[in-house]
Amino acid sequence: MKETEPKIRPAGDSCLVVDFGNAIALEINAKVQTLRSNLEARPVPGIMELMPTYRSLAVYFDPMETNLEGLRETISAEIGSIDEQVEIGSKEAVIPVCYGGEYGPDLESVAKHHGISEEEVIRRHCSNSCYCYMLGFTPGFSYLGGMDESIATPRLETPRELIPAGSVGIAGKQTGIYPIDSPGGWQLIGRTPLVMYDPAREPATLLDAGLWIRFRPVQKDEYLDIREKAIKNAYELEIVEKGDGTL
């Protein structure tokens, strides 16, 4: 087997992990998402959950309904059917964010770190479409790539014990959204009024791996208006088409 070919490895007696590479890259994640979509479109008996990461897909299954070798053969066949030119997601979610002040306590320090104004940090943070490679850390935490690297900023030296749900942060070249109150060390530059995680909702997470994200700056009055609607489940997430999804 070539080093560049996907590798299927067992992770215990009820999970197989399909590795597509060793880098954080759209081309690799596109293969992860394509395999995920194929398995979802043609349900395989015994598969209980599909969990995508940056470069791999974890396939959790019921060992009473299937087995490692049988599932490995099924997955190998699916991998073989993936076209050379895979497609990445073409849907883009627009996320409103109120930047700075009480909602973004680190915006000033990020601006000083780069020698630019706070307004310029906001402009650059909203200028690029970011790609959701995976969810993790806490339920629904979105790891987003593609942020303007000119505002890449190291994590805090001392993490906070409590970060409010909806906080938007920067850690290195990544940006992300905290879906629940939790500890964390990312530089907080703003907060979205949207409810990112609700266990009573279906699906519970507002975002998903394979989705594109674009941030939209809002003032506090609009933030509060959207927040009131979001809590009542009366705010409809804005989804737009982003190209044809071809890499």
Structure description:
It comes from Dethiosulfovibrio marinus. There is one protein chain. With 247 residues, the chain is α+β, with helices and mostly antiparallel strands. It folds into two domains: 75 residues, Gyrase A, domain 2; 151 residues, Cyclophilin-like (Cyclophilin), CATH 2.40.100.10. Helices cover 24% and strands 29% of the residues. The protein is built from five helices and 14 strands. The strands form three sheets. The protein has a seven-stranded mixed β-barrel with strand order 5-12-9-10-7-6-13. A four-stranded antiparallel β-sheet has the order 1-2-4-3, covered by helices on one side. It has a two-stranded antiparallel sheet with strand order 8-11. It is elongated, with a radius of gyration of 19 Å.
